[in-house]
Here is the input.
Amino acid sequence: MNPSLEQPCSYPEIYSNQASRSGERRTLIVVGLTLAMMAAEIGAGILFGSIALLADGLHMASDALALSIAVYAYIYARKHAGDRDFSFGAGKVNALGGFSSAVLLGVFALIMAWESLGRFFNPVTIAFDQAIWVAVLGLVVNGVSAFILGNGDHPDQAGHEHSKDHNLRSAYLHVLADTLTSITAILALLAGKYFGYFWMDPLIGLFGALFISRWSLGLIRGTSSVLLDKQESLLLKRVKVILENEPGTTVTDLHVWEIGHDQHSAVVTLKVENPKTPAHYKQLLSVEKELAHIVVEVNGS
Here is the structure.
């Protein structure tokens, strides 16, 4: 018999998912907190003549820029959810935003490492009391931000592990990196103030840069797999099992890949002894809620 093809579904409904809207709202709240902290530190630095406060405020400005990329990616994906110029919708914009933020995170780690090495050879005078209070305030703001962004991403009721929202994850890693630097800065400053261990500040800075670079590389790998249409192996295996449980059915070609947050596409070719309509096989796959777009080709044996 001639191959039968299942027509693609419409996209506005696919990409208006609640998880992405939740991530957008949470990221917007954190951008607001970051901007408020930035304004306070820059204002206090200028008013009191504190270079430490001014530098930390400018650092918060770089974080606000990275988080703004995440917000823009959410808004762009939502606005273009039904845009037919995108073959599978605009869901991958979130992964692109996450990739861009991951690169910025890596650049931040390199700058941090460079500054730490420089301070080994050219130590600077540290106003310990003022710097400690700044670090504590930054820790509180970053801790609250990390809690807001990290409060989510649970498995569904069927126990399937959902794909990560890479855009939200990139924002979370930015504030988590800041939380880590705040904690290590407090420890280093206390060691310098009470024990005279001035070398602790650049040493801990190097360790912080190492951890941040590892997070950055992990996020780059995760977002790259989405942007390059890497196969979703676990979901692919489940799809194959479901279809081949039908008597006389063999999967001869199968592709499953991510097209948006918790959304996947599947293209499958079947060889069947007693063929049924493509709609029948699509109905079999309806248990996999992550499959937003399915194309089925049925061939007789």
